[in-house]
């Protein structure tokens, strides 16, 4: 057991208490951030005359050698230390002696851990943003290739009106683009440095918090020392944004699972992204999509856990806050893994354009357009709706599409129908005429794609 605080104790910590209390098994993951924060702290202490230049140089060299050795695997982070902060400090003292004991001047583990967690999370926000961007590039590519790939659009999972694959995928482009914007918002709001807040009430040393903040790439120091050590709002925001990403991925996965089924056959997931069955030789299962859908739960779990951990703790730091780590780390790993694999699955997936088009033709996806045809000939919309409803009923009975009826049959239901009805309700017309901004018509979609392309170039 290597602890930083033995002085006022007369007994050894109970072994189980020690294990229950220790965080090294999971906070070891931000060892780099811990060293980086210590380096900035020491530079500031020397600049303020709190440490000598010599002490600063010795400490920086010591920290640098720890960084090098951990990176190379020469120094292993073992569980004999209580947490990563103790590990770094103890190793520093081992290496450089007296000067190492001055590292913690004007600092508490409370502002130290607040900083480490923030630095680590800030990197994660960037990584998630980059993965989202990669997915957007893939989606945009699919959109460009499929401007005229017709497919049914659904409401209530019932065929509704024809759209294109570009348009359907474009809906997800919007979702993941908003997810990126959330990353950027979070980054901006969280980017203030808690270091120098001490245990809760600042310190009496003349620390220059602006300088440490600047060294660590923050927009400035946080403005209340109690809030600084007690704040994990940025984690809640991040976990909430991660949950939203998972919700989007899960929703898309659900569609891909449906599209990949024998009943739909809209897509074929690449062999590299499918798995087989141990008993049924014919099976090729969409496991990646299913796992992404399934893993959504644990990310939501991390969000609910964090909200719950924080809801009852009085200011400022309480040990409950150590619980901010394990589930958050798991959520970050999970989302990054899912984004990566989902992107690979999308990149390699085949779209069966013929099957999609065929599916778009039947199921009366042109019924609204048939009603609009009558409206254009002067029939009030409500009457037109009724006429086409009766027409659909007639078609169901005959097992035919509206466009498969003869003009006589159509005229028997409404004399307004003329020869031009066939062109008006063809699949091509139904899609191409939808040209309002955001609609599936290829000409409208081209304008949107140009905007999305410019967005990806600028962001
Ligand atoms: N392991 C602790 C955490 O993760 C570090 C801070 C400890 N501070 C304290 N006063 N016990 O929150």
Structure notes:
With 459 residues, this protein is mostly helical. The protein has 3 domains: 100 residues, Fumarase C, Chain B, domain 1, CATH 1.10.275; 226 residues, Fumarase/aspartase (Central domain) (Fumarase C, Chain A, domain 2); 97 residues, Orthogonal Bundle (Ribonucleotide Reductase Protein R1, domain 1), CATH 1.10.40. 62% of the residues lie in helices and 5% in strands. Helix 7 runs antiparallel to helix 10 and helix 10 runs parallel beside helix 12. It is elongated, with a radius of gyration of 31 Å. The model has no long low-confidence stretch (mean pLDDT 96). Arginine binds next to helix 6.
Secondary-structure topology with pairs:
Layout: H1 15-21, H2 24-27, H3 31-47, H4 53-72, H5 84-96, H6 109-145, E1 150-155, E2 158-164, H7 165-190, E3 192-193, H8 209-215, E4 220-221, H9 225-230, H10 233-259, E5 267-268, H11 287-311, H12 326-348, E6 350-351, H13 353-361, H14 367-376, H15 381-398, H16 407-413, H17 421-424, H18 427-432, H19 442-458
Helix pairs in contact: 3-4, 3-6, 3-8, 4-5, 6-7, 6-12, 6-19, 7-10, 10-11, 10-12, 11-12, 14-15
